[in-house]
Amino acid sequence: MKSKSKISNPKSPRSPVPPFAHSPIPSSAPLAYLSAIRSILDHLEKTQLPQIDRAADLVIHALTHKGAVWCAEIGHSTQNDFINRAGGLAAVQSFAQGFTVSETISDALKDRSRGENVECDLETIRHAIRVSQLRAGDVLLVGSVSGKNRAPVELALACRAIGMKIVGFTSLTYTAKVESLHPSKKKLCDVVDVAIDNGAPHGDAAVEIAGIEHKVLPVSGVAMDVAGWMLWARVMEKMSDAGNPPTTFQSINRAGGKAAYDKALAQYNQRGY
Question: Residue 96 domain-assigned?
């Protein structure tokens, strides 16, 4: 009995297999990253619950006393996960600001003195607060992993100056090793009412991979997101325990989801939370 020969197509040679295609899955780097994230979760559980509880009290006081709750930039757009979110609080609203001046001038005239010292980036923040809906008694969430940058520090200072309460998300390990860029020389943890330490290491990246000279894979994004949802969870829990549950959203993609969303939105607009 003749054996069947294999049919080959000389016109379609097999492409060479990349040397990394058969790396074992899971490999050590993904597992190392998961380990780093577990360390962050342990840190939040073991050290940050008191701060989260204090922050929740600030939020609850604002919501039950005709105040608003705002979320500014807390790191790489993580704050967007909290806004208009299925399972989230209807009351959490975004605060972002920008200011543009369109001007053209010759190079010869660019260095003229204006007669006063104006730090445009900081003045833009102050102006935005003056013309915004931010009010005394409101709460603002703001973040900076390193805690050193000018904008979040100025935002916290300017909001506190009008009577707002500020919850800051930062890494105390990171911020201890850097110098502030703000004129006051203060860091974010110095200018907020409650500082929530996200536990990120200095430099944020947490995993070593052979062949790369520095650590990679940042953890602060996950940390900020989890810490934020822990805060909202505590707000929901405490308000519900008090018999005054806040308005929350269901997924619009569930059966009847659009009607449930519209009802929740109407309730939020009627009572403010």
Answer: yes
Cα angle 100, 105, 108 (rounded to 5 degrees) comes to 140
DSSP strand pairing (139-143 vs 165-170): parallel
Distance CA 69, CA 71 (A): 7
27 in a structural domain:
no
Instruction: Quick: pLDDT tens for 57-113.
Output: 999 999 999 999 999 988 777 889 999 999 999 999 999 988 888 889 999 998 888
Q: pLDDT at position 165, please? A: 98
What is the chain's length? 273
State the CB neighbour count (10 A cutoff) for residue 232: 22
How many helices (DSSP H) and strands (DSSP E) are in the chain? 7, 7
Strands 194-197 and 205-207, sheet pairing? unpaired
Domain CATH number, residue 125: 3.40.50.10490
The reply to whether 113 falls in a domain is no
* pLDDT bracket for residue 24 (50, 70, 90): low
User: If you write DSSP's letter for every residue of 81-148 in order, what string do you get?
Assistant: GGSS-TTSBTTEEE------------GGGTT---SS---HHHHHHHHHHHHSS--TT-EEEEE-SSS-
